[in-house]
Design brief:
The protein is an alpha/beta fold. The chain has helices at residues 6-16, 36-52, 70-81, 95-105, 113-117, 155-169, 186-197, 211-219, 229-238, 262-271, 345-351, 391-398, 436-441, 469-472; strands at residues 21-24, 33-35, 60-64, 85-89, 108-109, 135-140, 150-154, 176-179, 201-204, 224-227, 252-255, 276-283, 286-293, 305-306, 311-315, 328-333, 340-341, 358-366, 372-377, 382-384, 387-389, 404-414, 418-427, 452-455.
Length: 473
């Protein structure tokens, strides 16, 4: 899709296959669907409505995008068609947070989206007003360590990302995907764009608070599923451990936003034989920069190989490339990499250099077969008496204990060492095992053994499943 936009790809689908389903709104796959022809009419109508409201090409449009809201998808695409800049947000957030976001972006609110879409709107522009190099959306990062950053993505960025994702997953016109992830982050937005440019159909779920609805959609013939690991665990529980029985037509699953242990990945392969199982690594600034195929010979401890069209280099502290197998900071470059951060030139200059390389702040290394392994984040390092400790080392060791399902490590103040590791765990039972620390001690250096272990019912995570260490602190 080089030099084009996702809007032009969707228009082609509507012209070539106007009756094909694009959005599946009813409980049964294919019933009460919105065809590509109808979708294009709705997109153009919403775009025309915005233009009548006097929006300019660079206006930011605040879009409430609740999970499962098909109308929000139409409004998002209509905003892009009109040449506006989409600012997706979670309508469940507080009024104060929304006010702050609106002030930060100078965004304009739109009327009730559902009401607008049911109006008899005249069609807007026949062709999208958006240009490939224009700003398409401001997506605010999950804010796991501080204030969310406004990531600026152009139409060229999201088109390159969508084409790459659809190519790797193998999306096509026969796909019927159940989307359970939020629509305000790069995972959910990426699934929408990738399926639609390929001519497939989407059935959006309002999260997995009611997993039975997602299971019913899978049973009715879904070929694809997008989910985070925590959500997948809910589905497996609801399916009484036999998810394959509820997904007779499922051919692919994309997981992302949160890590899984190698043991959990192997168990998933056993649970869904014959299904192509993908996990991805990336950031809001560079979505899906690597892909890992679980049901293959890919090393499950890695986060996969570099995606098509993406460049990756691991740099040492002095900025020089690290040798194969040596650790450093992961840097990415490609047409999917964001153009910068909203109203923050200093951060943009600090994270994206003049050659287009993005400093991810993720630590890792690459093996001889070009697989990327992550060891933590530079910002999360714990300084134990001068020894630099990645919390991922501790978490990985803890999760090999039979009674630990999740683990998170942070640094806490110590008057002698400066910092020492503290561990939080989610257990399979109600009692803390006596051997957790000794189990970890057999796998890590002495300075990495936690000084304290606390059991929690659940680890704090963002809506997209990312661990929030700041809340543990």
């Amino acid at each position: 899709m080089s030099g084009t936009t996702i809007l032009e790809a969707i228009r082609r689908q509507a012209e070539q296959n106007p009756a094909a389903p694009a959005l599946l709104i009813a409980d049964k796959m294919g019933a009460n669907s919105v065809s590509y022809g109808a979708l294009l009419k709705l997109i153009r109508g919403f775009a025309g409505h915005l233009l009548e409201q006097g929006i300019a090409g660079a206006d930011r449009i605040m879009l409430p995008m609740a999970a499962g809201d098909h109308a929000a998808v139409i409004a998002y695409l209509g905003t892009l068609w009109a040449g506006g800049v989409a600012v997706p947000y979670d309508p469940a957030q507080s009024a104060a947070a929304l006010t702050q976001l609106t002030l930060r972006t100078g965004g304009r609110q739109v009327p009730d989206i559902d009401a607008v879409l049911f109006m008899d709107l005249p069609p807007g522009p026949a062709a999208p007003l958006a240009k490939a190099d224009a700003l398409a959306e401001l997506v605010f990062s999950s804010g796991t360590t501080g204030e969310p950053k406004g990531v600026m993505l152009t139409h060229a960025n999201i088109a390159a990302s969508a084409a790459m994702i659809a190519g790797v997953i193998g999306n096509g016109p026969n796909d019927r995907e159940v989307v359970t992830v939020p629509l305000t982050h790069s995972f959910g937005l990426g699934r929408i764009r990738s399926v639609l440019i390929a001519g497939g159909a989407l059935q959006l779920m309002p999260g997995l608070h009611f997993p039975g609805a997602a299971l019913a959609a899978l049973q009715a013939g879904a070929t694809g599923l997008s989910c985070v690991p925590v959500g997948l665990a809910l589905l497996q529980t609801a399916a009484q451990g036999d998810l394959a029985a509820y997904a007779p037509a499922l051919r692919y699953l994309e997981l992302g936003s949160a890590p899984m242990s190698a043991a959990a990945k192997r168990a998933l392969c056993d649970a869904l034989p014959g299904v192509r199982l993908w996990m991805h690594y990336g950031l809001t600034e560079a979505s899906r920069s690597t892909f890992l195929r679980l049901d293959s010979s890919d090393p499950l401890e890695s986060v996969g190989r570099i995606s098509p069209g993406v460049e990756l280099v691991v740099r040492q502290e002095d900025g020089t490339p690290a040798r194969t197998g040596a650790g450093g900071i992961v840097h990415l470059r490609g047409p999917h990499v964001a153009s910068g951060y909203w109203n923050d030139g200093a951060l943009t200059a600090n994270r994206i250099d003049a050659q287009g390389w993005l400093d991810t702040r993720d630590e890792g290394w690459v093996d001889a077969d070009s697989y990327l392994y992550l060891t933590g984040r530079a910002d999360d390092q714990i300084n134990v008496g001068g020894e630099k400790l990645s919390p991922v080392m501790v978490e990985t060791a803890a999760q090999t204990h039979a009674q630990v399902t999740e683990a998170a490590c942070i640094g806490m103040y110590d008057p002698v060492l400066g910092e020492v590791p503290r561990l939080f765990v989610v257990l399979t039972g109600d009692t803390m095992p006596d051997d957790i620390l000794s189990h970890i001690a057999g796998q890590v250096p002495a300075y990495a053994v936690p000084h304290d272990v606390t059991a929690l019912v659940a680890l704090p995570r963002t809506a997209s499943g990312k661990l929030q260490r700041n809340k543990l602190r």
